[in-house]
Amino acid sequence: MKKFKWPDPPGSTAFPIAAAGYPLIAAAVFTTAVLALLGLTTLTLIGLVVTFCFCGFFRDPDRVTPDNQAAVVSPADGKVISAAVVESSAFYDGPSLKISIFMTVFNVHVNRIPHEGRVKEISYYPGKFFSANLEKASLENEHNAVFVEMENGRQLCVVQVAGLIARRIICHVKPGDTVLRGQRFGLICFGSRLDVYLPADTRLEVTIGEKVRAGTSILGQLV
Fold it and tell me: Could you confirm whether 131 is annotated as catalytic?
């Protein structure tokens, strides 16, 4: 039987919401209430739908993480759109295993750390907004790269990439922080992707087209 652990303390509510969603949800609730008081039935119903959509988008379910020191877990919910060794990149010195995960607006958008270590550097780039499923989005779109130093000095990089309609990348960690596998570290608003760069000899555990869950699904095993 596999063992699991909590990377973050479990929430105290049945339907946890990411803090970044509170202002939008509150605004939607207020607007809907005003429309209801004015007797504008159709607009009130639209307001209710928008409110529930915001609640769904910013949902932040608790997750358990496999208790496996070699495991690298997915940083996002979504679909694997690429997984291959690349000879060079702007986010890793030398060859690396790059795994890209595409999130639609229906996925949970809270991002999680792939493997424990220490945050060595964070690099933000205010780029363009191509569709996140395009390969050129990795470098040309707005993105935020979190470089993590693992055990024995090995490195990984997880890159939050904004999508076509995404206009806000949130990152809670900072250089020097010690992070845990599966720990929440940020969020991207409204559709996007995450790229993970791992040591080239990492044993790949997912296939292109496979759906993964942040903090729970194993992308690869370090060797």
Answer: no
